[in-house]
Design a protein that fits this description.
Layout (H helix, E strand, L loop, with lengths): L2 H12 L4 E6 L12 E7 L3 E5 L20 E5 L4 H4 L15 E5 L2 E6 L4 E4 L3 H9 L11 E2 L2 E4 L3 H16 L5 E11 L2 E2 L2 H11 L4 E7 L2 E7 L2 E5 L3 E5 L1 E6 L4 H13 L1 H19 L8 E10 L3 E11 L6 H8 L7 E2 L1 H11 L10 E5 L5 E4 L4 E5 L4 E10 L5 H11 L1 H7 L1
Antiparallel strand pairs: 1-2, 1-12, 2-6, 3-5, 4-5, 4-20, 6-7, 8-11, 9-10, 10-19, 10-23, 12-13, 13-22, 14-15, 14-21, 15-18, 16-18, 17-18, 20-21, 22-23
Helix pairs in contact: 4-10, 5-11
Length: 421
């Protein structure tokens, strides 16, 4: 059976499974061409751990974040930062999901870049037979409905907050801050989250797309950004800072890419985050091994062009996923510089808790290698609470134009809004 046919049958079978992680490159290029997998899927639960509330985040230990020697899939909320930094968060998350969840699945199915399909399961033969016998229902309809959509910031409020951040920059309190706003959808229903995910990645295929279903909790994500990964020797991070619109006309599209590549504003905000990531990686890297492998790379996706850099370091002896997470979380591209100060400003300036948005989804292999994304361009919804939300954000610098920043947010949320319409 061809891989594409197998994948369609697999996705049809996954529609009925209550615990699913889908990590999918959508055949898209990623910065510096890192990683060995086209897609990785975890199904079922052999073991699950959750870190739910702030009273659980003291005296953290690596055992709370992974199960050694097993395939692990995880999802982290933005406010997991409070576990690693002396910070507080008083904004309300309408979904109120755990800060961190790690699952050891029953079955793991992977496709490597060289086309090798692998299944890790104690019921491998039975699973293969079950999937192969599943009807290929590639075009399943997906019905979505909701009654109201309420934004955490009006355009005027967003404008005023951008001006306030610029004032703080002028006073020397910070250099750059990522400002986010969310839209909440009430009385939300969806016939099947996996079908919604497939529709989203048709609209906006991206190299770090993901779908997570943990019973009633659903994440539908078309992320272009890697948070961090490790091949067991080096640790990598690939922050995105800088966005421009894609155009059907090839000349317009070329000019958009050129404008992004040569924009002094975009390059200035990008280099600040690159320096921040270099500092983060140095905490878990051998001295003198942190380097910038690619600077100001321009990568085109269906909806937008993105400026991406690749930074890496030689992972220190005895250090692994937990230490790397503790040193780098949350990602600099979604906070700002200086990192700790901007996180304090974010808690004060934003009016809604980010929840899983600007968090991370990823996997840890039995040998300790790992990879993860940044949860952006995403919709989250709860089947029990009948609530959904999505959020967008952008980096504010002293040169930011409030109207342009708001328009960039609309551009980043275009695929989600098309999905809902």
């Amino acid at each position: 059976m061809q891989v594409d046919t197998f994948k369609r049958k697999l996705f049809t079978w996954l529609r009925t499974q209550p615990s699913v992680f889908v990590l999918d490159s959508c055949n898209q290029p990623n910065g510096y061409e890192l990683g060995n997998y086209e897609w990785i899927i975890g199904v079922g639960v052999l073991e699950q751990k959750e870190l739910c509330h702030s009273d659980q985040i003291h005296a953290l230990h690596a055992s709370q974040f992974s199960v050694p020697g097993k395939w692990n899939f995880f999802v982290a909320a933005y406010d997991l930062k409070n576990a690693f930094h002396p910070l507080r968060s008083e904004n309300v998350d309408v979904l109120d999901w755990p800060l961190y969840t790690v699952v050891v699945p029953e079955h793991v199915i992977t496709l490597t870049r060289n086309g090798q399909l692998e299944i890790f399961s104690e019921q491998k033969e039975e699973l293969l037979k079950l999937i192969n016998q599943t009807a290929d229902a590639n075009d399943m309809p997906c019905e979505v409905s909701f009654n109201t959509a309420v934004s955490s910031l009006t355009q005027t409020e967003h404008h005023n907050k951008v001006e306030y951040i610029k004032q703080q920059i002028a006073e020397g309190n910070l250099y750059e801050m990522n400002l986010c706003m969310e839209t909440v959808l009430m009385d939300f229903t969806c016939s099947n989250g996996l079908d919604l995910y497939r529709r989203l990645v048709e609209l906006s295929p991206t190299p770090f797309s993901s779908f997570v279903r943990l019973n009633e909790k659903h994440l539908v994500c078309a992320s272009p950004e890697r948070f961090m990964s490790s091949d067991g020797e080096r640790i990598y991070s690939q922050p995105i800072k800088g966005t421009s619109k894609r155009y059907r006309d090839s000349e317009e599209d070329r000019m958009s890419r050129m404008h992004l590549a040569n924009s002094l504003k975009e390059r200035a905000e990008h280099i600040m985050i690159v320096d921040l990531v270099r500092n983060d990686l140095s905490k878990v890297s051998e001295p003198g091994t942190v380097r910038v492998d690619e600077l100001f790379g321009i990568y085109g996706y269906r909806q937008v062009n993105q400026m991406i850099s690749t930074i890496s370091g030689q992972l220190g002896p005895g250090l692994g996923f937990f230490e790397a997470l503790k040193a780098t979380y949350p990602m600099g591209s979604m906070t700002g510089a200086p990192k700790h100060i901007t996180m304090e400003f974010i808690d004060d300036i934003e009016t809604a808790s980010r929840g899983w948005y600007s968090g991370s989804v990823g996997y840890i292999k039995p040998n300790g290698e790992f990879d993860s994304n940044v949860v952006i361009r995403s919709l989250m919804y709860d089947d029990v609470k009948k609530v959904a939300k999505y959020a967008v954000g952008g980096a504010i610098t002293f040169d930011s134009d409030p109207n342009a920043e708001y328009d960039e947010c609309l551009l980043k949320s275009k695929a989600i809004r098309e999905l809902l319409n």
